[in-house]
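If you are new to this repository, start here. Below is one unmodified record pulled from the training split, so you can see the exact layout before writing a loader.
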Amino acid sequence: MVADISCMKILIAEDSRPVRLVLKTYINQMGIEPEFAETGNEAYEKLQSATYDLIILDIHMPGMDGREIIRRIRGEGIATPAMAMTAEDDSPILSECLKEGFTSFLLKPILKEELFHIIFKIHKTMD
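And here is the target side for that same chain:
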């Protein structure tokens, strides 16, 4: 039996419109309507006023990037699972992201199967 994940509340912080469209398409196929923030500041504000089951953060955005957001929210005690998203397949950077409090990472270009796997895995920990 496949778990019903349509109830998941996901926030995605991504400054690239094409990447947002890809993520929206893929996540909609899972029955989820994600919420978006186009800047790190917007994402941080949303995290102050709402609760999410998963946060997907681009680690390279103008202004406040995903790494700064994760450091801030972890410092505030927000333990929501967070996925670092980057086009850099650089082991030291990805390792640093995990040390800073990200629970997983997603490389661009985004592979639908990888995204689905991570979301299902996170949903499973919610049960």
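Two things worth knowing about this chain: The chain has one domain: 10-120. The beta strands are 10-13, 35-37, 54-58, 82-86, 104-107.
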